[in-house]
Known about the structure:
Radius of gyration: 23 Å
Strand content: 35-45%
Number of helices: 2
Distance between the termini: 54 Å
Strand order of the largest sheet: 3-9-8-5-6
Amino acid sequence: MSKKLGLLLSTILLVIASFVLSVAPAAAETYTVKMGADSGMLQFDPPTVTIKAGDTVKWVNNKLAPHNVMFDGSKMDSAVATKISHKNLVFSPGESFETTFSEPGEYSYYCEPHRGAGMVGKVIVQ
Length: 126
């Protein structure tokens, strides 16, 4: 009798363990932001993205180059802004760069050559 009970408990434990081990953790995602809208406007498209900590934002040069992404040091730690900014300009369509965000918060950014034209964006990390 005790052998049957032990076998039953072992089987139940194996079944439960297989469910726990087969559930994959949530994978980090990559979100794409176009630099220069399809309509030809000097803007990031979309202008605001909401992501989770651990996700990545990829900025892709689309239209009306050159573009870059500079994070606003007046709205966050300036050392962090410098670290995650992409100062180098991209000129060719399809050129890209990306940043992975690990800390929750709001990250405002702009395109240095087109900031005066209103080319600004925001990443909201939950």
